[in-house]
Specification:
Four Helix Bundle (Hemerythrin (Met), subunit A); mainly alpha; single chain
Length: 145
């Protein structure tokens, strides 16, 4: 696959995951909503990684780490870094924690106690916004801006 095909692959997988999160939300499967949101955001960030580095993305689920790795050579403007710090960094930490909790839930914790409907809706809506934000970065990078 060439670079654009790889990017499109990750974007397609991201769309699939966020659509899966929406289905899980409508079915009341709230833990999987946050899990799938994390997966969708991770995949669109990996598309951005490929756009910047023209190589396979780092094997990590940590979206914050990926963002900082992509920016190592000053990829993003000060405005984008400020927006990341003010809006996205804390959210990305939160969804990573849920990724870990969902995969390695303690035997003493009922899985339904991890995420309720309100929390799942908030994570889902912010997740859709995050994907749009990262896609804008992908488009900025593709036009050389």
């Amino acid at each position: 696959m060439d670079k654009e095909e790889k990017i499109n692959h990750w974007l397609c997988m991201s769309r699939y995951d966020i659509e899966s999160a929406e289905y899980m939300l409508s079915a009341g499967r709230y833990v999987y909503v946050v899990f799938m949101c994390q997966q969708a955001i991770e995949k669109v960030m990996k598309a951005l990684f490929i756009k910047v580095y023209d190589e396979e993305p780092i094997r990590t689920h940590n979206v914050n780490f990926l963002f900082h790795k992509i920016n190592e050579e000053g990829t993003f403007s000060k405005e984008i870094i400020k927006e990341y710090n003010e809006i996205w960094e804390e959210y990305f930490v939160e969804i990573l924690s849920f990724y870990t909790e969902v995969r390695y839930v303690d035997y003493k914790v009922k899985i339904e106690d991890i995420v309720d409907a309100e929390h799942a809706h908030r994570v889902f809506e912010k997740g859709k916004e995050a994907i749009i934000w990262i896609q804008k970065l992908l488009n900025l990078k593709s036009t050389g801006s």
